[in-house]
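Q: What changes when adenine is included in the input?
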Amino acid sequence: MIQPVIGIIGGSGLYDIDGLEDKTWRRVETPWGDPSDELMFGRLAGIQCVFLPRHGRGHPTSPTHLNYRANIDALKRCGVTDVLSLSAVGSLKAELPPGHFVVVDQFIDRSFAREKTFFGDGIVAHVSMAHPVCNRLGDALHGAASGLSLPVTRGGTYLVMEGPQFSTKAESELYRSWGCSVIGMTNMPEAKLAREAELCYATVAMVTDFDCWHPDHDHVTVEAVVQVLLGNADKARGLVQAAVPELGKPRALCPCGCDRALDNAVITAPSMRDPALAAKLSVVAGRVLG
Ligand SMILES: CSC[C@H]1O[C@H](OP(=O)(O)O)[C@H](O)[C@@H]1O
Ligand SMILES: Nc1ncnc2[nH]cnc12
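A: The predicted holo structure follows.
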């Protein structure tokens, strides 16, 4: 049996979480550089949790310049098994108004200026991203949100744009025509890297605005986003407190296979593998690289 350790990545407006016992902030070093901030360690209902503010406390780091690899490596290094990603998003559907939560199940990655893999020349690996979200975590998050009577939808596609500027109206309409539910700037490559690191990963996308497609919302502004975000952040803290006791129960391997994502993914012959890269990958992929 596995004793889960719950990682929580807090997005815009979520730079701290409540109710953790024995809370301490600690710096964690990784071979990929520095994570966004110190990580906060503590226990919720006796379950070990590790919290990381995605953009750092005070939000100094833009979506493009986040060190996604360091963030994911640091969580894994600290023993995290399950990652809850909490993110502010714009809505691309009329039925998902500000204040609504979406437990997304798909992503379209339109980001282009980020490091997207732990692997590369010297050790090449290809993991499946067909089902980018851990269903087990998604179900638990949806169940916890429903239990709290939060307005929540299970399933939906999160379009990841590069940013930092918000979309043009034509882009917003394009993504709507693709059937996307919400838009944000951060969940890729985060979800790809979590998969490479064999971490279960699920996102609660918290709607702050209607993006610019909506006739009543001609522009997205940070001011409008932040107003909704603060209320969403309070609800998200409640959601974490409700979900963690369920997710922290000792369990078998993940039925979705997230924790075995690297089985059969590394294609580089053992004799051709770069020892320096193998050393960097020791935490992320040590299970399969030996
Ligand atoms: C403050 S609005 C734009 C900003 O918020 C979202 O970040 P996160 O996913 O970390 O909550 C969005 O992706 C942008 O980075
Ligand atoms: N409309 C929007 N576009 C991209 N990221 C966002 N985060 C919050 N609202 C957003």
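Observations recorded in class: Residues 88-90, 161, 166, 183-185, 208-209, 211, 220, 225 surround adenine (ligand 2) (CB under 6 Å).
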